[in-house]
Specification:
The chain is α+β, with helices and mostly antiparallel strands. 31% of the residues lie in helices and 29% in strands. Strands 2-3-4-1-7-8-10-9 form an eight-stranded mixed sheet, sandwiched between helices. Strands 25-26-31-28-27-32 form a six-stranded antiparallel beta barrel. Helix 13 packs parallel to helix 14. It is elongated and about 105 Å long. It binds guanosine-5'-diphosphate (GDP). Guanosine-5'-diphosphate binds next to helix 1. The site of guanosine-5'-diphosphate (GDP) has 16 residues, from helix 1.
Length: 607
């Protein structure tokens, strides 16, 4: 049951909006985060900013201080801003909270020198999909030619200091980028000119290096959040909490890092969390936040709290958390709550993802750091361009038991673990090495796919080399009578490939009333150049070497003559190898020829 918290004046209390930073790689997401964390107090005082678990908290006083020059302090009524520390997609995808995005508001970073890039568009689509409000930070304005730095100044003020040339270049680039957004169906405008906020998205020019524009960026975020999200930001006692990460900490055991979006958590609260082996029902042993003093933080000392109110990043210690699944919701068992029901709903996200595993029983194993990244990876593996079957999934480090499972696959390409952003225990690695299981490790989905694809190609190539010994490609050759260079041992002739493909290694025979094997193609020359293969319509000279004493006796003019067609000897076995490994490479006509020859020879073989 929701119960709105009201303060003494009877006004609704707001919680801090939660913000994430998205955008293409190298646009300056990390640098912007650093910049937001820093205060403009030159001495480097903390300025009230607190480093939380997985997030940075910027209290209202700090925002007021930093935006003083903008004369907007009176308008602040949220306690602060909580910025999620992991920039990029993963943070966004992982932070699911009961089906909706955890972030209230986003910063979409665009490099002013590069404009929209592939991941900008991806980020844009993610933000739209989750209906998350956002502003655009047009970063790296200091890279404009001739930019005069005005450290940490509002961008409006900094712009006034710039030369005409800088302003012109800025306008030109801005216009282009607005047009690019328009192509994506998004109306954008420079924040100071934006009269239709809500329909038109605001662009704030920034520099994460010299700090221009950061005041406007922070102010816009907070203003926009408190203007449009009062309902969402109204503090309630209803717990809304998402597990960001599961970590084993020396002395604490398995802990979970969570973002508490709404409500209060207490020491001793009974909680239910999604676990990889079923729901986890446990009791909060301690609620921890990092020590504000950096030196202590390095040593891993935490502050213990009896209770913590949203919005906050917190580390929770409790029993049985080792199988908790990152990226899922945490529930508190309240009075009158049905634990069974909570256990059901906590597993919903998990079931959703589990249902994507192939039922065929053959496929690779996928291991990821969080449910969100696992989901993203499974989605990716499923796309038609990739299409890799998945037989098993897991979250967290790769253990020996995972190797054992992968080892049961029949096909070598499926004795494989795709490990995304997770560690592999030394024991697991050793076991993999000894049991022919290959582990691919990457932190970017695309890299994982590239590695796996290269592996599959290598396997295929090896298999082909292996099979080439036995596969016989179908061909029919006509002898060119005036080009008989050597009649016997080896036979060297000019031929016309009238059907199929001629390859070195192919056993050649003559069809008369019976089959006369005359040897194997040991070399092919086309215009005096050695080649491995010749196609229908080509005229080449071939060398045929007898594979045994009998074949070595075979002679042009005695055992066969210019009227005889030379044909590759397709046996039933060689046909099967051809079909299993090379069928895709053959044209329809070549396949028909292979079928015909096989049928023909098998009649003889049966006699
Ligand atoms: P991310 O991949 O989006 O997190 O990008 P980073 O924050 O790592 O930045 C990528 C590179 O761009 C780094 O070399 C930064 O120093 C640089 N960079 C980031 N922001 C700015 C900026 O505002 N101005 C300039 N000149 N360089 C920047």
């Amino acid at each position: 049951a929701k119960s709105r918290m009201e303060d003494k004046e009877g006004e609704k209390t707001l919680r801090s909006p939660i913000c994430c930073i998205m955008g293409h790689v190298d646009t300056g997401k990390t640098k912007l985060l650093d910049c937001i964390r820093r205060t403009n107090v030159q001495e480097g005082e903390a300025g009230g900013i607190t480093q939380q678990i997985g997030a940075t908290y910027i209290p209202a006083e700090n925002i007021r201080e930093r935006t003083k020059e903008l004369k907007a302090d009176a308008l602040l009524n949220v306690p602060g801003l909580l910025v999620i520390d992991t920039p990029g997609h993963e943070s966004f995808k992982n932070l699911r909270s009961r089906g909706s995005g955890l972030c209230d508001i986003g910063i979409l970073v665009v490099d002013i020198m590069h404009g929209l890039e592939p991941q900008t568009i991806e980020s844009l689509n993610l933000l739209r999909m989750r209906n998350t409000e956002f502003i655009v930070a047009l970063n790296k304005v200091d890279r404009l030619y001739g930019w005069k730095a005005c450290r940490n100044a509002p961008i409006g003020k900094a712009m006034k200091q710039q030369s005409k040339g800088v302003k012109l270049e800025f306008d030109h680039r801005l216009t282009q980028i607005i047009a690019q957004f328009k192509e994506q169906g998004l109306n954008t405008e420079l924040y100071s000119k934006n009269k239709e906020r809500g329909e038109t998205y605001s662009i704030v020019p920034t520099s994460a290096i010299s700090g221009e524009g950061i005041p406007e960026m922070i102010l816009l975020l907070v203003q926009w959040a408190q203007k449009t999200m009062i309902e969402k930001l109204t503090y309630s006692n209803e717990i809304q909490c998402t597990v960001l990460e599961v970590k084993v900490i020396e002395g604490l055991g398995a802990t979970i890092d969570v973002v508490l979006v709404n409500g209060v958590l207490h020491e001793g609260d009974e909680i239910v969390v999604c676990g990889f082996q079923g729901p986890i029902h446990t009791t909060i042993r301690s609620l921890l936040t990092p020590h504000p003093m950096k030196e202590l933080r390095v040593k891993g000392a935490y502050i213990h709290h009896k209770e913590i109110k949203a919005a906050q990043g917190i580390k929770i210690t409790a029993q049985n958390l080792e199988h908790a699944v990152a990226g899922t919701a945490l529930y508190v068992v309240g009075p009158g709550d049905d634990v069974k029901e909570l256990k059901e709903s906590v597993m919903d996200d998990m079931r959703n993802v589990m249902s994507r595993v192939d039922k065929s029983g053959e496929g690779v194993f996928v291991q990821a750091s969080t449910l969100g990244s696992l989901e993203a990876l499974l989605e990716f593996l499923k796309t038609p361009a990739v299409s890799i079957p998945v037989n098993g999934i897991g979250i967290g480090p790769v253990h020996k038991k995972d190797i054992l499972k992968a080892g049961t696959m029949k096909k070598k390409e499926y004795k494989t673990i795709l490990a995304f952003d997770v560690k592999v225990t030394p024991e697991a690695q050793e076991h993999a090495d000894n049991n022919g299981v290959t582990i691919f490790i990457a932190h970017i989905i695309y890299h994982l796919f590239d590695q796996f694809k290269a592996y599959i190609d290598k396997l295929k190539e090896e298999k082909m080399k292996e099979a080439a010994k036995d596969a016989v490609f179908p061909c029919v050759l006509k002898i060119m009578p005036n080009l008989v260079f050597n009649k016997k041992n080896p036979i060297i002739l000019g031929v016309d490939v009238i059907e199929g493909i001629l390859k070195t290694g192919t056993p050649i025979c003559i069809f008369q009333r019976e089959i006369i094997d005359i040897g194997q193609i040991s070399s092919i020359e086309n215009n005096k150049k050695r080649v491995n293969c010749a196609k229908k319509g080509q005229k080449v000279s071939i060398k045929i070497t007898g594979r045994n004493a009998e074949e070595q006796q075979k002679m042009f003019g005695r055992h066969f003559d210019k009227e005889d067609e030379l044909v590759s000897h397709v046996s039933r076995d060689s046909y099967d190898v051809l079909k299993a490994n090379y069928w895709d490479e053959l044209t329809n006509e070549e396949r028909t020829l292979a079928d015909r020859l096989k049928r023909h020879f098998s009649k003889y073989e049966m006699c």
